[in-house]
Amino acid sequence: MKYQHWKIAFAYIGVIIGAGLSSGQDLLQYFLCFGKMGLLGVLFLGVLNAIFGRIMVTFGCYYRADNHEEVFSQIAHPFFSRILDIVLVIGSFVMGFVMVAGAGSNLNQQFGIPSGIGALICSILIAVVAFLDFDKITSVLGIFTPVIIVMLLSITAYTFIGKSYDFAALDATARTIKPAMNNVFLSVINYYALCAMTGVSMAFILGGTVVRIGIAEKGGTLGGIMVGIIVLAASFSIFANITEVKDADMPMLAIVNNIHPWFAVLYAFTVFSLIFNTAFSLYYSIARRFSGGSTKKMRIIMIAVVAGGYICSFGGFKTLIGVMYPILGYMGVLLLIILFVAWIQKRKDIIVEKFFRRNMLRISLKKQQPDKHVTEKEKELFHSLSEISPAETDALKNDIHETTKQIMENTDDIKKYMDENLSVDDIKIQKNVNEMMDSENQKSEK
Asked: Global pTM?
């Protein structure tokens, strides 16, 4: 429980850091092609990752989302909600098979394995992991994240410690690369919109796995910040080696091969794992969207999506990024606008709900302690808080009780835990409950 926000953060990074970022191909075509100005664009990209990482995971927690449609139906007009639903399904499928193509390129560049075979290996793994439970899946998504962070920071340190570079010459070489967009500003907006499309569905689902909004906020923010750090480190390393790697499908892998062959092997496996993470998340979000809550149906859809994605992956990784990503990025701008506007509109409600759930957890914890007595007033408050929550009432109650059990099992001093993590203002809580109940009654009368 104590490190749950880190689990969310690492899983979120695993979704975002896929074939493009961990390989460096996205960074070449979107940012480094503009030379030194492109590095400033990467810095701004990191800021957007932190802001929207927090927003997306928090919305998933607030609505206890099982798929992206459940959130969009609440925060957007039905017309825009429907458009976003279609865009995300199409976008997730397209980016999914681009990731699979990246898996093939990765194994081909490092080991000489035919790209089609590498893509097939990745596709089979995706289908197999779909038969695990979600807690295990979340663990899989985050397991390689610390590894790639250490690797990228090590590569950056190796690249710059004790060495100097002619940045004017590097800038001139970088500008010979064909850009995906016309200028840096468009690249930042377009590329982050693409990242949001990659991560939003799974970010909602990740947020929906936790009850406490504070944990979701912290996990999303940490995940976004670390994505920014990873991207910045990779960008500086590629820029310093731009002459040697500008034509490679996997620029980062080309750099690593110059450091040590065994390090390159380890990096190739790690990149493959991250590609798998992203591809799995994209396909999984599609399957969850159309499964209607049925695990069996979800797995059947997953297998069909994986098979279709494998066929489409033969378009070639580098070509697919140059052609498909800008189009998907423009489609994702609408997503960013809707998310940001909804965040401003819902911010007060989210803060209120955060303290409501804290109070529910306090009451539930009190009920589990033999030496404590839950009053009728507290029982009524627990019921009222669950009724006015944006989450489904019975599901929220069950999840509150499950979270309580986990806290009881993993905490020695319950009172200390409550004081440090579940502080509330009872008077303010009751006032907010009364206001919201009055508002609901007025709506019913109308």
From this structure: 0.81
